[in-house]
Specification:
CATH architecture: Alpha Horseshoe
Oligomer: single chain
Largest sheet: none
Strand content: under 5%
Number of helices: 5
Number of domains: 1
Shape: globular
Order of helices and strands: HHHHH
Structural class: mainly alpha
Radius of gyration: 11 Å
Distance between the termini: 27 Å
CATH superfamily: Ankyrin repeat-containing domain
Number of strands: 0
Amino acid sequence: MGHLEIVKILIEKKASIETSDHDGRTPFHISCSSGYEQVVEMLMQHNVNPNIADNGGNTALHISCTEKIVEILLEN
């Protein structure tokens, strides 16, 4: 089972898609920094807040500037 399938299940089960880890990173931050394009798109389709900053003050857009993910974020 891949990342996308796991995210689909979590969304179906009404899990919070904006829960953060000890560094303040959400699944959206991690998906952006890891290059998981399909997961990023799915989270965007489910109204994830792209403006949440981690403990370092970085949003997903900041984190993804070196990744192709930035194109997806700017399109939405």
